[in-house]
Amino acid sequence: MALSVRRQPRYKFAAPVLSPSCLQKLCVPWEFAARLAAGAGDVHVVDLLGKPRRVELCVRPRPDGGVACWLGAGWPEIVRKNGIGEGWSVVLRRERRGMATLTAFDPACCLVRLCAPPAGVTSKTRPRFIKLLRPDDWEKMTIPDEFVQQHLIGLESCPSSQKALIIGPTGKLWPVELDQRQSDVLYGEVWAEFLTAHDLSQGNILLFRYEVNMSFSVQVFLPNGCMKEYPYLADEADGPSTALPQSAKQLVAATVSKKRKYNRQVVSAIPAPVPAIKAKKVESQSKPAGVLRGHSFTKQITSSSLTKLFAVKRTFCSSIGLVGACTIELKTSMESTRSWPVAFNIANTYGYLTGKGWKRFCRDNEVEEGDRCTFKVVEKMVWHVVIN
């Protein structure tokens, strides 16, 4: 059976073993908040019943220069209606801007399903369990007993092979030994090698998904709940990408602009202000030249757009003076100096955004198949992109 990982999984946040305070407000790292929304405001969380519920994403600067983010109003209602309690674990998966899907795990670390499939229909949701790594797990890790009873008891392959196939987040396969006396215990040299190879230690969170025949795919989370990203997920020619859609500073600045609640002292409390000379440049870019004013188009992203090239009608290119190969600067915020240089070429009746720069732009900004992107021409070779 060939197993491969084709695309980077959607970004997730994991919160293991909820405390009573987490039932009232759920703290999330700013890295996740920045991917979920441009700043403070309402987002939607699809709960265990499949219902989208409105939740307030709160963003506040901390005295130490960091940013505090949490799900506030609306979160306690999700907790109550879904029966989530102390000791549970939750995972939020970003679907698109402003929307995330919630999955929950009971105190036994097993996936909770509130929506059962109709009789005779197999659920598309594969069994999962979550583990917060502790010191004892370095030598051996126990699969939750409830998970074993529900999904592994009676499997013919389990007692005979005494191996569990772990599919790591990089796509590599790890045949890990099962205890001869306890088929629910992972141990041995390969297990230790798996932990070492992925730089895992106490506090990391592992999300196991059961595939078939004692094989599990694993996603890794940092102690703060953010997904741990690995180099393979980036285009090998580009190398790993650790860039985020926006910095903590920009996240707070966006909140200030959006709600008009903070004064200049709040914004200046965030480190690394934009130099004055660059600010002037951004300001000049934010004012489109008269000849280009109103030039924009919206297009849905396809799988081909993500992996190969993004086509632009030649009539549009001609209308703004693009008649040959050049480099276009893509920006997601005109208040930021961050931009992505992308190769542009003309062929037949279309112009194309392509190459490493285009792939990096899509990766850094979490552009996914099905997203709708609006390209607004600021200057001939400077485009502002709004991703929906």
UniProtKB/TrEMBL annotation:
Stored CDD domains: B3_DNA (cd10017)
Annotated Pfam families: B3
SMART domains from the UniProt entry: B3 (SM01019)
Keyword annotations of the record: DNA-binding, Nucleus, Repeat, Transcription, Transcription regulation
InterPro entries: B3_DNA-bd, DNA-bd_pseudobarrel_sf, REM_fam
Organism of origin: Aegilops tauschii subsp. strangulata
GO CC terms, sorted: nucleus
GO molecular function, a single term: DNA binding
Keyword Oxidoreductase: no
Keyword Acetylation carried by entry: no
Cross-referenced PANTHER family: B3 DOMAIN-CONTAINING PROTEIN REM-LIKE 3-RELATED (PTHR31674), B3 DOMAIN-CONTAINING PROTEIN REM14-RELATED (PTHR31674:SF62)
Protein name: TF-B3 domain-containing protein
Major location category of this protein: nucleus
Positions of the TF-B3 domain: 126-224, 295-388
Location(s), subcellular: Nucleus
Lineage: Eukaryota, Viridiplantae, Streptophyta, Embryophyta, Tracheophyta
